[in-house]
Amino acid sequence: MNRAKLEGRVFSRLTVVRPEGTDGRGAPTWLCQCSCGKTTHVITNRLTSGKTSSCGCFWLEQITAKATTHGATRGKKEPLYIIWVSMKSRCYSERNPAYQRYGGRGIIMAERWLNYASFREDMIHGYKPGLSIDRINNNGNYEPGNVRWANDKTQARNTRRTIMGEMNGERKPLIEWAEKAGLPYQRVKQRIQKLGWNLQEALSPLRWHQPI
Q: Which of 38, 40, 58, 147: disulfide with 54, CB 3.0–4.6 Å?
């Protein structure tokens, strides 16, 4: 199928926005807008075959309904259980829309956490409604020492696509450096990527009169 003809097409809950590079195996991917409001990246054949029909929200809705309606235990009705099921599926189920970004590239769970009771015991403290589980090292596993409870903003700044910057021994997302300096993120990024400036130069207002 002609790649250009996919733009604007709707596949179940997903609307194709534009081509977005390739995945870890070199397969072309598309940036898609889900009807729930989130965006996701999907490879071509999973879109056209119908194997991926949402950002993962449809699958999670099914899991939630199953845990609620089929006599699940009290513990399994809580949000923490849904988080655990979703995490486990991302790592081990090829049917999960997000599998290629997790299990498909070698991300697994600590053996102890394959048991929900053990995961709950380790992670219940610090959890609040609205938070999700985030890996500190995005290339590391779901395991003690490499996970934290994070809000959507923190999650969005800790992906493989996040541009990092380091200065004076401190490393954090480039957008945070820009915010701290009170400068527009896109212009800071352009100074680094197009002009080859280092982070300190890009954050210096004294050099901002120079055109890109």
A: 58
